[in-house]
Amino acid sequence: MTARHRAAVLGSPIAHSLSPVLHRAAYAELGLGEWTYDRFEIDEAALPGFVAGLGPEWAGLSLTMPLKRAIIPLLDEVSPTARSVEAVNTVVFTEDGRRVGDNTDIPGLVAALRERGVEKAASAAVLGAGATASSALAALAGLCTGEVTAYVRSAERAAEMRRWGERLGVPVRTADWSRAAEAFEAPLVVATTPAGAADALAAAVPDRPGTLFDVLYEPWPTPLAAAWAARGGTVLGGLDLLVHQAVLQVERMTGISPAPLAAMRAAGEAALAAR
User: Fold this and answer.
1) Catalytic residues
2) For residue 269, is pLDDT > 60?
3) Residue by residue, what is the 3-state secondary structure of the chain?
4) Banded pLDDT at 3 (limits 50, 70, 90)
5) In this predicted model, which residue has the larger pLDDT, 2 or 6?
6) Nearest C-alpha neighbor of 192 from the set 237, 246, 141
7) Which residues, 6 or more positions from 123, have their beta carbon under 8 angstroms from its beta carbon?
8) pTM for the whole thing?
9) Is a pLDDT exceeding 50 seen at residue 36?
10) Which long-range contacts (CB under 8 A, 24 or more apart) does 264-270 make?
11) Which of 46, 45, 37, 47 is nearest to 17 (CA)?
């Protein structure tokens, strides 16, 4: 049987992805000289043909936007974690050729918070309502002992977040984006908004903030993260999430555990610093 040693990240756009840097650093640290990890610009229309053309040397795929839901009909099995948010960011090809989908964003977010000492939160706030916000809710299902408040820009988004809360077993209250500064009263805030969307909130950071997880990693730090850190709060960024979810991907694809977290983080930091 052909040895499985190829992996890649797919998405559109994809040129900015740090995944190749992280995975290649892991292979180097683990001594996996035969392993390769590439990136491919693939949209939803091209995805079925690309997946169908993969040979037995393929071990796995990482998926980013807009493919995390488009991949699901092409899989033989999907993990309960991925099903819970209807999003697959990881595909592992088994030795018998089956395609198994998983989601490492959710446990990656939990692991990143745990690394910084955040095991539980009495309440939490989520800024935004996109795909990352649903993953944040899924992570908070095991972390937050109380209510989660989602700050959103429309009634449609508010209803969507409440539906996700019901599905994931998380009590979700919604509030209009105009009140987003109130989020900072929570001990844990997860910002899932696009670059620039939360910049104006930096001036509203309180004197003694709790923990902020801002999922952006470029540009970094965001104005919100910088203001938070300046006031002594705990700050996690997008690189923390990216590295922890990539660690889990490497472990699933290679079968080797633990993956080299420190080496992967150092490679990611160096790559960002060089941009």
Assistant:
1) 68
2) yes
3) CCCCCEEEEEECCCCCCCHHHHHHHHHHHHCCCCCEEEEEECCCCCHHHHHHCCCCCEEEEEECCCCCCCCHHHCCEECHHHHHHCCCCEEEECCCCCEEEECCHHHHHHHHHHHCCCCCECCEEEECCCHHHHHHHHHHHHHECCCEEEEECCHHHHHHHHHHHHHHCCCEEEEEHHHHHHHHHCCEEEECCCCCCCHHHHHHCCCCCCEEEECCCCCCCCHHHHHHHHCCCEEECHHHHHHHHHHHHHHHHHCCCCCCHHHHHHHHHHHHHCC
4) confident
5) 6
6) 237
7) 144, 146, 147, 148, 149, 186, 187, 188
8) 0.95
9) yes
10) 264/22, 264/23, 264/25, 264/26, 264/29, 265/239, 266/25, 267/21, 267/22, 267/24, 267/25, 268/18, 268/21, 268/22, 268/25, 268/239, 268/242, 268/243, 269/239
11) 37
* Mean of the per-residue pLDDT values of the chain: 96
Average pLDDT over residues 204-223: 96
What pLDDT score was predicted for residue 1?
A: 45
Residues β-bridged to residue 96 = none
What is the chain's length? 275
State the pLDDT at residue 131.
84
Q: What is the mean pLDDT of residues 202-211?
A: 97
The DSSP bridge partners found for residue 127 are 151, 191
